[in-house]
Design goal:
Layout: E1 6-10, E2 13-18, E3 27-30, E4 36-40, E5 57-59, E6 65-66, E7 70-74, E8 77-79, E9 82-84, E10 87-89, E11 100-103, E12 110-113, H1 122-128, E13 144-149, H2 157-164, H3 167-170, E14 174-179, H4 183-192, E15 197-200, H5 203-209, E16 214-223, E17 227-230, E18 244-247, H6 253-263, E19 274-277, H7 281-290, E20 295-298, H8 302-308, E21 312-316, H9 317-320, E22 323-332, H10 333-338, H11 340-359, H12 361-372, H13 377-387, H14 399-408, H15 426-433, H16 436-441
Parallel strand pairs: 13-14, 13-15, 18-19, 18-20
Antiparallel strand pairs: 1-2, 1-4, 3-7, 5-8, 6-7, 9-10, 11-12, 15-22, 16-22, 17-20, 17-21
């Protein structure tokens, strides 16, 4: 558990200094333009879920209409990324409409990004950041690759296994996995050039439609990879009408998945069924438990925690087999142009990691234990079994997958968009054509 406290000030007025649990939801109501100051010198004892030294702070809030026009601030001060031997652990559970402190390299260094985000609107972010990055942005001589991921889920296994088994080094890169909560923020971080790659899903589409110069280079979870858990009064999907469902981020995979599901029952997300964007799977489960929402989308292993708390799975989206990109590898096009060999080295390691994930449960669970920070055998098995076998040997992105995302995207340009504009299989195909994947699996 934590051995320190955090101080939160709003417009210079002391607001809170106390221990903050990673799953806690603490609400403060403040003026929309208030200035926020966070101080944090927290160290960890090495116990609990997040051992290590906190390298920086991220104060996140989501701008929501609340009580007649007040802004509702999720006042939780979360951990930011914790760097240790090139890997990252942490809890980063909210969203920022005032200030985001992103951790950069170095044990205690960070940079402040001052922007207002209205309900995580990726379109606005992309419009601010669509200019090409400087030519030197990705010209580092080292083989370091920073990849962000949006939630602690079994879906992230290939990048975790790649680092844990040193497949990254075997194929010529030094991979740093960085937890950046939520698809909207992760996409922003990629577009800004603070990371080279992102392991993320459908949130990329709105950014590209708004002009962001990023693209899918692989699609490793080619369908929705989460479940809808509900309170006992929800008997079926139609009974969600008039109720509130908790989702992660507007315009991201859970948002798209709920829209696709409700359409099958002639229901409209946001109208027939109300939506509350909570930021993460832990927040969703906490809101479900408190009765704030009647249902929420969560992924393994949080699914096991939900069942332990007495909640039931209403829909497993994997069983719907809807083409989608729940998890893809996304790159800035400037990085592909400037560093194609480094990108190909990553892809070789990634494809090799997919093989390990699909075939080696013990190695996969060791990686899960490290990144989920738990030795609970049931949780590790839940996370592993939920995604085992779902990863394709060659994770090509397809037009069908992108078309499915465009069909549920709320961007005004989505209907007329060409799916081919959102992905680039060129480097993966070069690897495939070279015989690398055939040799990896052995000739049959």
């Amino acid at each position: 558990m934590e051995s320190g406290k955090r101080a939160l000030s709003v417009d210079g007025k002391y607001l809170s200094s106390r221990r903050v649990h990673a799953a806690a939801l603490t609400d403060f109501v403040i003026p929309a333009q208030a200035g926020i100051q966070v101080t944090d010198n927290v160290r960890h004892t090495g116990e609990g879920r997040y051992p290590g030294v906190v390298a920086g702070i991220s104060l996140d809030t989501r701008l929501r209409g609340y009580d007649g026009g007040w802004r509702r601030l999720n006042g939780q001060v979360s951990h930011s990324q914790i760097f240790s031997q090139g890997n990252t652990k942490g809890s980063d559970n909210c969203f920022s409409n005032f200030r985001v402190l992103h951790v950069l390299r170095g044990e205690h260094s960070f940079r402040s990004v001052r922007q207002r985000l209205l309900c995580g609107a990726i379109a606005f972010l992309a419009l601010l950041l669509t200019h090409a990055l400087p030519s030197s942005s990705f010209a580092a001589s080292a083989n370091n690759i920073r990849i962000g991921y949006p939630q602690p889920s079994g879906a992230m296994l290939p990048i975790w296994v790649m680092a844990e088994t040193k497949l990254d080094q075997k194929y010529g890169v030094d991979l740093q996995n960085i937890y950046i909560s939520g698809g909207a923020r992760l996409t922003q971080t990629l577009v800004s050039g603070d990371i080279e790659l992102a392991a993320t899903g459908g949130a990329v589409i709105n950014a590209v439609l708004s002009g962001a110069d990023i693209t899918y280079v692989a699609a490793s979870v080619p369908t929705y990879g989460f479940s809808l858990y509900v309170r006992n009064d929800v008997k079926d999907v139609p009974s969600l009408k008039g109720k509130v469902v908790g989702l992660m981020t507007k315009g991201a995979s859970t948002d798209h998945g709920l829209t696709a599901l409700l359409r099958q029952y002639n229901l409209r997300s946001g109208q027939d069924v109300k939506v509350l964007y909570l930021g993460g799977v832990r927040e969703g489960l906490a809101a479900l438990d408190r009765g704030i929402v009647s249902a929420t989308t969560i992924s393994a292993p949080t699914t096991l925690m939900a069942r332990r708390m007495g909640y039931k799975e209403l829909v497993n989206f994997i069983n719907l087999k809807i083409p989608y990109i729940q998890l893809g590898i996304v790159a800035h096009k400037a990085f592909l142009r400037q560093q194609p060999e480094r990108m190909k080295a990553f892809l070789r390691g990634y494809v090799a990691a997919i093989k390990v994930v699909n075939e080696d449960a013990d190695t996969s669970k060791r990686a899960l234990a490290k990144y989920l920070a738990t030795n609970d055998a049931a949780i590790l098995d839940e996370a592993y079994q939920a995604y085992r076998g779902i990863y394709p040997r060659v994770p090509y992105t397809t037009e069908e997958q992108v078309r499915s995302i465009l069909a549920v995207a709320d961007h005004p340009k989505a209907a007329g968009a060409d799916p081919k504009e959102f992905f680039d299989n060129r480097l993966l195909k070069e690897i495939d054509d070279s015989g690398f994947i055939t040799e990896l699996y052995g000739r049959r």
